[in-house]
Design a protein that fits this description.
The protein is α+β, with helices and mostly antiparallel strands and 186 residues long. 18% of the residues lie in helices and 54% in strands. It has a 12-stranded antiparallel barrel. Strand 6 and strand 7 form a beta hairpin. The longest helix has 19 residues.
């Protein structure tokens, strides 16, 4: 009788565990939804089979301090941590809180992105050329963003070779930092 209960409990816990796992996506690219504005982005995942969006929340007010994202059933918000200080952001989504902070004062080309247990450093490959970004170190794999066409910030290719330990909210935070810091606020 005890063995049957143990098997039953094991089966129930394994079903619950498999249902509780996050959906894993590889980001593939990002493009402006409209050719003349950087307020609304289309996000591509899993070889362009899945589309989502990243949208400036207060588009009419020209306040670049709050954003919303959606990819399939996953969604979240990205907000500036302190008003008038774009060196700290916070993403809330998927039951996680992700912090994004510049590593150096007034240097928006190097960032530390963390969910409290995983920390990833993201930087512009060149300080004066913001069209190529990459992660530093390979503990969790690699993540790169490069403009599809040189000198055109409307389309980005993403090489997402991060491990499954890195959640979608962490990836969205990295993508947001690149898009926000590389494109004009028009």
């Amino acid at each position: 009788m005890n063995n049957k209960w143990l098997i039953f409990i094991f089966l129930i816990s394994s079903l619950t565990t498999s249902q509780a796992q996050d959906v894993y996506y590889n980001l593939y690219g990002a493009s402006t939804a409209w050719g003349d504005s950087f307020k609304e982005w289309t996000i591509y995942a899993d070889e362009e089979e899945i589309e989502g969006d990243l949208t400036l929340r207060w588009g009419m007010r020209e306040a670049w301090t709050a954003w919303d994202y959606r990819l399939e059933d996953e969604s979240g918000t990205i907000k500036i941590k302190w008003m008038n200080d774009a060196s700290q952001w916070e993403l809330r989504g998927g039951g996680e809180i992700i912090t994004m902070k510049t590593i150096w004062l007034r240097d928006f080309t190097e960032w530390r992105i963390s969910d409290g247990s995983i920390t990833i450093k993201l930087r512009s490959k060149y300080k004066d050329y913001l069209e190529e970004w990459e992660t530093v170190g390979d503990k969790y794999g690699s993540f790169e963003m490069i403009t599809t066409y040189e000198n055109d910030l409307r389309d980005w290719d993403i090489v997402d070779d991060l491990t499954e330990e890195v959640s979608l909210p962490m990836k969205m935070a990295m993508m947001f930092i690149v898009l926000f810091n590389s494109t004009p606020k028009v």
